[in-house]
Amino acid sequence: MPFVLRRIGFYIVAFCAAAVINFLIPRLMPGDPIDFMFAKAENTLPPEARAALLKTFGFAVGPLHEQFLAYLRSVFTWDLGYSVKFYPLTVSQVLGYALPWTVFLAGTSAILAFSVGSITGILAAWRRGGAFDSVASPLALAVQAIPAVVVALAALFVFGVALKWLPTGYAFDPKLDPGWSPQFIGSVAHSAIMPVVSLAFVHIGGYLVTMRNNMIGQLGEDHVVMGLAKGLSDRRVRYNYAARNALLPSVTAFALTIGSVMGGSLVTEVVFNYPGLGRTLYVAIVARDYPLIQGQLLVMTLAMLTANLAVDLAYVFLDPRLRRA
Amino acid sequence: KAILTAFPTETTAFVANFNPFNTSTRLSTVEDFMYEPLVIFNVLQGGKPEYRLAESFTYNDDLTAVTFKIRDGVKWSDGQPFTANDVLFTFNLLKAHPELDLNAIWTQIKSVEVDGNNVTIAYNAANSGLIYKLVQVYVVPEHTWKDVADPATFTNEKPVGSGPMTEIERFTPQEYMQCRNPNYWDAANLFVDCLRFPQIAGNDQTLTEVTKGELDWFGAFLPDIEKTYVGLDPDHNAYWFPGGSMVVFNLNQQTKNAGNKAAFNDLNFRRAFSMAMDRQAMVDIAGYGYPTLNEYPSGLGAAFHSWNNAKVDTEYGQFSKYNLDAAKQLLADSGYKDVTGDGFVENPDGSKIGFDIIVPNGWTDWVNSVQLAVEGLTQVGIEARLSTPEEGPWDNMLKSGDFDVGINSIRGGVTPHFMFDLALYSANVGKTRQAASHYSNPELDKLLDGFYQTSDEAEQRKIMDQIQEIVGRDLPYVAVFNNPLWYEYSTKRFTGWFNAENPVARPVVYGGVPERVLHLLALRPVTP
Amino acid sequence: MVQQSNLVEVRGLKVDFMTTTGLFTAVNAVDLDIRRGEVMGLAGESGCGKSTIAFALMRLHRPPAIISGGSIRVDGEDVLALTPQALRRWRWRKVSMVFQSAMNSLNPVLTIFEQFRDVLVGHTGMRRDAARARAEELMKLVGIAAARLDDYPHQLSGGMRQRVVLAMALALEPELIIMDEPTTALDVVVQREILTEIMALKARLGFSLLFITHDLALMAQLADRIAIMLKGLIIEVGATRQIVEAPEQSYTRALWDAMPRLETLS
Amino acid sequence: MTPPILELVAASKTFRIRNIFGGEKSVAALQQVSLKLDEGRALAIVGESGSGKSTLGRAATGLFPLSSGQVLFRGRDIATIRGRKARLKHRRAVQMIFQDPFSALNPAHTVRHHLERPLRLHHGLSGVALGERVAGIVAEAELDPNHTLDKYPHELSGGQRQRVNLARVLAVGAELVVADEPTSMLDVSIRRSMLELIARLKTQRGLSLLYITHDIATAHYIAEETAVMFGGRIVEWGPSREVIARPAHPYTKVLLSAVPNASERLDGDSAAAAAFAVEVARVRGMAKEEIGQWTEVSPGHYAAV
Amino acid sequence: MSGSLEVIFRNKKAVVGLAIVLAYVAIAVAAPWITEHAPMQRVGRPHEPPSMDQLLGTTRMGRDVFTQLIWGTRTSLFVGFLAGLIVTVIGVTLGITAGYLGGWVDEVINFFTNIALVIPQLPLLLVIAAFVGQASPMVIALIIGLTSWAWGARVTRAQTMSLRRREFIEASELAGEPTWRMIAVELLPNLLSIIGFNFIGSVIYTIITEATLEFLGLGDPNAVSWGTMLYNAQTSSAIMIGAWWEVAAPASFIAVIGIGLSLINFAIDEISNPRLRTLGTVAKAAKAQRAIDRARVDATAPEA
Ligand SMILES: Nc1ncnc2c1ncn2[C@@H]1O[C@H](COP(=O)(O)OP(=O)(O)OP(=O)(O)O)[C@@H](O)[C@H]1O
Ligand SMILES: Nc1ncnc2c1ncn2[C@@H]1O[C@H](COP(=O)(O)OP(=O)(O)OP(=O)(O)O)[C@@H](O)[C@H]1O
Ligand SMILES: [Mg+2]
Ligand SMILES: [Mg+2]
């Protein structure tokens, strides 16, 4: 079977597998959405009322296999039912609201981490063993080993609470109305600084070290030496001869870290009260909002798959050896 | 415009749900502010009725029916008149949709009838306390609700209300603004034009919001409040934490674990348990000193001290005070011994005692209280562990009886009867989380029944004395402290706040306390 | 006569490698002259330091290699004293090089043309289309269709890549081309083809050639003079005929003796 | 009559290469190759790079299954050898020296490990006997017994590695050795002595040898017969001297003419060079055509022309 | 292989990293002797700042931060190493099996590995941890161990496949080695650096992830670990009210062990990768070259 077809096939099957896992997990969790919904109510619900509620909120009832069929249908129609926690919003509405924020947060910080990490990695490798390398590389490692939670908390305390330089919560100033006004965009950017930077911070190290080691490998390659012999500028050799080749493994690493960026963004979102998928998932878990949890995992898996697909494509683009038709 | 910024409860995102019958996700400002109650019973004033949409209420002679007279000239926010028919409609709505009737009103009433301005509600049995539940039914306008197909899932996006604040002027998940009702009947007393509600998700965020100085009225737990809040602006920032619901440990007398059941059904074990509770530490350490100590054997609580039966204190008071030695002694005297040598006692018959104390995950002050309880219990030789299910399962376990020991709170009412009834009335077992001790005592049931069958205060006091006697003696739950009512305010932009010097009514801004309408009406903007 | 003047003068060249166990001297006090227009052969066993000399000539060594002594003059210019900028301009213009593994010395992610352009634009500042024309011309020179300029290296066969590198080495018409075992990875037939081409180009363009190999027979076919290396030292230099027929050093003689020869059979 | 020690009958091997877009290319590395090797003799396989020499060698040892055809070892099809005992026995009899000496040595183990394993496995040696035997083999391969044994492969030069590979195969005591360019990285002098060592083993032990090389000059040194491969096929086969002296197939001719010859100057502009280029192009073109008719050029010397 | 010990000790990063990790292990082992209190015992007022009595101050509940930190080390290291072990064993087994056997076995394993790779880790862990309900450190270790092997499996597989193509495997096959020996003796030693890398990486990941899960409130409040310490600090808003020690202690402890382990990993990389191994000499040589160049310029300058 052709590689591309196999790859696409894989994505489809992976998605289905993820869908099955998503189906099972919340169902295995203790507690029932209605209990959570009405935990604050004074009395136990009469069974009829309970059944009525289950039905009105569209929670699956009946034997597992019927639930599964209903679930499958909902996956493909993207009708994931109501969120318990955010009723009357549907799961797709909640996710639709949260998704852009996470894409923005995780995406910006992944790109930031990737570019900063890769560029510093390139420089460290270029003067390998030099002062910059000896300081930056171990430092990068050190940073990488600090949990996102710690970084986020520290940033929150220093820049938000102590120095009051940056907003400490929200995706934008709540007094503003969302829109394309410069004021609003400015506010979004301003509010994003801390979450984006603190999330990127922990991932820079990984890219730096990967890039540095790949670069060091590349720098010994003949084509790089030839680049130098050809009398090209250091810059050109560094970026077009060494880095472009060294980038390939980093790109795979990029795909793999999308997951950890998403994981990290969960914590960051919780700490900074950022309205993305991560915080929503956290809330959904605490509230046992099954439909929402399911939708979340589905979307996150989909995001991972998309990222992987993108990386597959980027790979073909970056490495002409793979491009032969 | 006088805009007051308030923060009633933590949320992760606001969702536009203005259906007062949906307890799960309706906004906390729908009750009272958008839909005003007929009558507000001012708990701090011994349950004095403040007539709102109703002008008065009267009982029939044998206390089996109550008649509300609806106030003249009240209008819905869209200008339509508010009538007795709206009340009738609402009650009928609950009857037709039991899932909306969360207080199970219709299990206790027979009928609702309208006669001109009067609405008469007939009870199944004599009851002078049911009215407190009846006024918690928020009346909705018939003209907009009659066509609602499914009132349980209805979100009431264009709310038409009767309260002071009905107009939603701005709505985002991060903030919304609820503004004055153009047709408010009591507009003469309303000086606040809009309420602004920012979304705040947790303690840390509350603290950072607080430092911005934008919050005027809120009810939040703030650690070290003197420093973290008052200290920020000592001239304006202030707080007042009157005692609220009673916090108890429920020893489930019908637990499925035989060894634990034997122990929990032994009064001496319960007394030893109670003496192992370092209540002061729970208040001071777990609660930052905000809760009110509760060493009443019956758990009556300082707020109801006027009802106190002093005899109960002298007779049983020792069992409600922290005393590890006495607890150990009592256990030893009652035959509890450590036969297995694990450092923990077993039942006199040798069966094992060992239990989890369940507390909702993340309710830190309670979690810490339970940890203190475990510390005390461990020291007297009782094996106890902390367990933190999520709120939902915790609630479910307390209701269903599938647990050993849990920490729990019992809502206070206008009179102490309300909480004793909730927690100990045998018919409530299995129905409400508050009856989690799964205790049943026919003698007590009779007294509880009798309390509201009379409206004679002397008679009621006598009954209450007896109730306290039984509860204090029997120790069906172990009361430890009363939760504070959370209330912080700033006088920078508004004055007229309730506080210890001006204790007009319960001052909180969060739901479940209808007196907040009275508080809102008492506020005046500071004119610069 | 031009023929006789020295293009390259290497004096007392010493190259060390810093290793974990200490300094390792790979090339020790080597003197070497290359005349204009001549083919200088450098032969010797594997690991004796041939490539190290080649790298030193272009000052391509990077740590852990250290050019720790001696001087290199090319066309009268002291290569070791050039500033980095001057060195960059000097490389490839005066001296270019075909690497030991020429097949791998093309950048796999750039098209052949882009790699030509790097050289042409970088050194002469010529416009893109001029560079294109020049690249096409060079490709024709080594017998590859100009259309292949837009291919990536992996799309060419080993022999073609070898030729592309050769064409690139000619791009700026340098005075010296260093060829470090340019054909070891190829079979004799392809080797013969390429070498024939190189010799034809040399005849036409007149550059000098430093030809490095351990194949003595091949060396004898090409070189005007031959230098024999042993363990970091040049032990013998002489005209090809002399080295082949009357070697002075016993090592050189041993080399010849051990070489299996076909002609003895026929 | 005893069967030949190795016989290939119409052996073919096709590799499939997939690219990421699913395009599939197949490379016919071996096409209908038949050959015979008698015990105690050596057959040299020469040919251009990529003509399938290594593939043929690997096929002969049974490292991969053929696409079609048979490999017979002492008359028995090696594909039919079943069971660990029988396979071990076959393994012992047939050994291979790989083309790339570095990748054939395990970077994690010392030279000693590489030499001891086959001795333990096939000869059950241990203790002092093992030590002695190892020392003997090391000496045979002209490796320094004091320093070499405890080195790791990356600490050896290419030539040393090739000798370790050779020594290891000798350790097994094989009857048939497939040697894939076993001396390509050796200095001429050492190369010479290694070839002599192989030749000695051939006469002393009756070792049979399939000697793969592209250096036709060394082929006649040890191999009585030489086969020329071109484009996955054998195109010429005969006594080594005959093949070198009187090449019949065009490719053999080109190959021989291209072998560097110290007494012949190579300069670019001669007509000979042009003629060579034309001839090479013509021969390359032939690779795509069907193989010619086998004719016996001289006794025992066949060519497909 | 005494030579490799020497290599390790020559590598400064390895030495520092090892020293850090060994110090932690020592702390974990000696916890009962280092501390005088039980970790959950109240020893003072809430949030007492560091003093001679309470070296690192007290928590909101008046417990000794130092004691908790020491006992937390035990828990966190145990969790880290247990999960690291599980991850490595599963990853290596699957990776080698897939890479060595190839064919449909590889297809199947690779398929599941890829799926495991695209399911977002932390969210999944979060859900499972919530499902398990107050997950004890042991349970967290198991969950992480059982869900995080994919990366290791993928890398091991890739490396195995590339080794498999190397001829020394074929050579030992020709020498008649049995399969198990080929895997255990010929293949495994070549994978050691990857396995070590994977193991240490997993330990870091687990320690961080455990702390994160607990920080989010999904841990067992009875457990004493760095994560629960952070959680307790967070719920009592320690940062906001200036009780920095309650956060700083576990945070820096996590960071330092993370750094130690990373350094070891870095060193493994350097030691096993010849290109990185020589970096020290590269720097030295660069310095020497600069000195020589300067001398050369100085020597020519007077002439000019
Ligand atoms: N980076 C390095 N570090 C240490 N030693 C090195 C390094 N590069 C080369 N050497 C050593 O320097 C010596 C000369 O190497 P060089 O590459 O010049 O040999 P050569 O004559 O070109 O050999 P070959 O014919 O195999 O290419 C060798 O002994 C080699 O081991
Ligand atoms: N495993 C394989 N997969 C795909 N193609 C292969 C494989 N092995 C060999 N080939 C192809 O088969 C052909 C013959 O290869 P082989 O290695 O036998 O050549 P060779 O004659 O040994 O060449 P050389 O002299 O360069 O070693 C080549 O085109 C090669 O690319
Ligand atoms: Mg060389
Ligand atoms: Mg080959």
TrEMBL record, chain A:
Q: Which UniProt keywords apply?
A: Membrane, Transmembrane, Transmembrane helix, Transport
**Annotated CDD domains:** TM_PBP2 (cd06261)
**InterPro entries with a match to the protein in the record:** MetI-like (IPR000515), MetI-like_sf (IPR035906)
Segments spanning the bilayer are 9-29, 98-126, 138-163, 183-209, 246-267, 297-318
Q: Where does the protein principally reside? A: membrane
Provide the GO biological process annotations.
transmembrane transport
The membrane topology term of the UniProt record is:
Multi-pass membrane protein
Which Pfam families does the UniProt record give? BPD_transp_1 (PF00528)
What protein am I looking at?
Peptide ABC transporter permease
Species, as recorded: Devosia insulae DS-56
TrEMBL record, chain C:
User: What cellular-component terms does GO give this entry?
Assistant: plasma membrane
| Subcellular location, record wording | Cell inner membrane
Q: In what way does this protein cross or attach to the membrane? A: Peripheral membrane protein
Q: Does the keyword Transit peptide apply?
A: no
Which keywords does this Swiss-Prot/TrEMBL entry list? Answer: ATP-binding, Cell inner membrane, Cell membrane, Membrane, Nucleotide-binding, Translocase, Transport
Q: What GO annotations for molecular function exist for this entry?
A: ATP binding; ATP hydrolysis activity
Name one process (GO BP) from the record.
transmembrane transport
The record's section on Pfam families has: ABC_tran
What top-level branch of life does the organism fall under? Bacteria
InterPro entries documented for this protein:
AAA+_ATPase, ABC_Ni/Peptide_Import, ABC_transporter-like_ATP-bd, ABC_transporter-like_CS, P-loop_NTPase
Instruction: Indicate the segments forming the ABC transporter domain, all copies.
Output: 10-256
Q: Does the keyword Repeat apply?
A: no
- Of which family is this protein a member? Belongs to the ABC transporter superfamily.
> This protein is called what?
Sugar ABC transporter ATP-binding protein
Q: Which organism is it from?
A: Devosia insulae DS-56
From TrEMBL, chain D:
Q: Which GO terms describe its cellular component?
A: plasma membrane
Q: State the compartments where it is located.
A: Cell inner membrane
One Gene Ontology term of the biological-process aspect is: peptide transport
Which keywords does the record carry? ATP-binding, Nucleotide-binding, Transport
Supply one GO molecular-function term. ATP hydrolysis activity
Q: Where is the ABC transporter domain?
A: 15-256
- Extract the InterPro entries matched here: AAA+_ATPase, ABC_transp_ATP-bind, ABC_transporter-like_ATP-bd, ABC_transporter-like_CS, Oligopep_ABC_C, P-loop_NTPase
Topology relative to the membrane: Peripheral membrane protein
UniProt lists the family membership as follows: Belongs to the ABC transporter superfamily.
Give the protein's recorded name.
Dipeptide/oligopeptide/nickel ABC transporter ATP-binding protein
The protein's organism comes out as: Devosia insulae DS-56
UniProtKB/TrEMBL annotation, chain E:
Q: Cellular component GO terms, alphabetically?
A: plasma membrane
Gene3D superfamilies according to UniProt: MetI-like
Instruction: Name the PROSITE patterns for this protein.
Output: ABC_TM1
UniProt keyword Isomerase, yes or no = no
Single GO MF descriptor: dipeptide transmembrane transporter activity
Per the UniProt entry, what are the Gene Ontology biological process annotations, in alphabetical order? protein transport
Where in this chain does the record put each ABC transmembrane type-1 domain?
73-265
Query: Which CDD domains does the protein's record reference?
Result: TM_PBP2
Pfam family name, one:
BPD_transp_1
Topology in the lipid bilayer is annotated as: Multi-pass membrane protein
Stretches that traverse the bilayer? 14-34, 77-101, 108-132, 138-156, 187-208, 247-268
Keywords linked to the UniProt accession: Cell membrane, Membrane, Peptide transport, Protein transport, Transmembrane, Transmembrane helix, Transport
Location within or outside the cell: Cell membrane
Q: What is its main location?
A: membrane
Which region is the signal sequence? Answer: none
- Which protein family is named in the record? Belongs to the binding-protein-dependent transport system permease family.
Against PANTHER family, the record matches this protein to: D,D-DIPEPTIDE TRANSPORT SYSTEM PERMEASE PROTEIN DDPC-RELATED (PTHR43386:SF1), OLIGOPEPTIDE TRANSPORT SYSTEM PERMEASE PROTEIN APPC (PTHR43386)
Question: Under what name is this protein listed?
Answer: Peptide ABC transporter permease
**Species this chain originates from:** Devosia insulae DS-56
